[in-house]
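Notebook entry, structure prediction.
Reason for the run: the old model in the group folder had no record of what sequence produced it. Starting over properly, with the input documented here first.
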Amino acid sequence: MPKQEADLPLAVPTHQRLLELSPSKDTEAVELRQNLSALVALDRVLWLGGDEGRSLYRLQRLGDHHYGDLSEVKLRDFGLAAGKDDGESDLEGLARDGDRLWLVGSHSLRRRRHDAKAGPLKLHDRQSRNAQVLGCLRLDGQGRPVAGQRLAFDAAEGRDALTDALATDRRIAPFLAIPSKDNGLDIEGIAARGERVLVGLRGPVLRGIALVVDLRLGGLDGDGPTLALEAHRCRYLSLSGLAVRDLAVVPGSDDVLVLAGPTMDLAGPCYLHRWRHALGPEDAPRKEGVTLECTEPLLWVRDGRPGRPGEGSDKPEGLDVQRHGGQLLAWVAYDDPRAARIEGQGARTRLDGFVLPD
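New structure, fully documented this time:
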């Protein structure tokens, strides 16, 4: 009988990965550390994304589980973002596939944080057009970006082809006008294989069912900057009421690892699930309606208690999977890290590594 979440003990990390973002407490490096939301390793390079700014960040491997020498890659230089007036990119997922580095923004509507002095809760005055991005960087043999491609973007309307496609889905469309922290649309997580791209949703969660959008893209083989959305379908996961917080392809398989955690702005438990054959071929056309796909819970990685205000909460946000020394390791990155995770000189943080059953 497959394991259930209730059968899992709280996992203890077996490895730690040190990320030295800056030798001094540089403002930009500290902001990245506090808002880390996506990561992926490619050979000797570790890529990081955050939910602030309009850049990706590149770290070099200095030793086993040790990275440093941070450099910035501005998305605007590769056609994946516009200027400051168009808002933050709010990157929520990175994925690797061959010589392509995939990225996705939240595509979300945002509400200002509650402030008792400011009166009623309000939406942001301007929504981030830069967060409406799904695209990739093509990398050279040294792992450096040489070109960018993105899903078709309507500059006049400030939305991309993915948002347009979701607006035609009768289950998701009503949530496009709802802020992300109110159970509105909020993309977190991406996995890619060839022309197939999966994007996970932190919101909405529908009656306890988590959502992943399965995309088929065109234009990857060309030199043009624009990708076409040729097909899409929504897939429904049973994650015991939790949402998708990140996705990562399990090396050497069609399986996808799912970081499952709370939706909206809730504190709650986080688990790692294995979604078997997630990127496998479809056996038959899907019937109209909801087909619930089951996943296999592997590890319980956060107990769910909220952190103390001002002391960090270690919210699992980013996920990467690799084979190392004959083991399958899941690396988890944390938003709002606690003091023990960031202690030391300069701006640094530590990822947790968990050994997975293979």
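Summary: DSSP finds three helices and 23 strands in the chain.
The old model has been moved to the deprecated folder.
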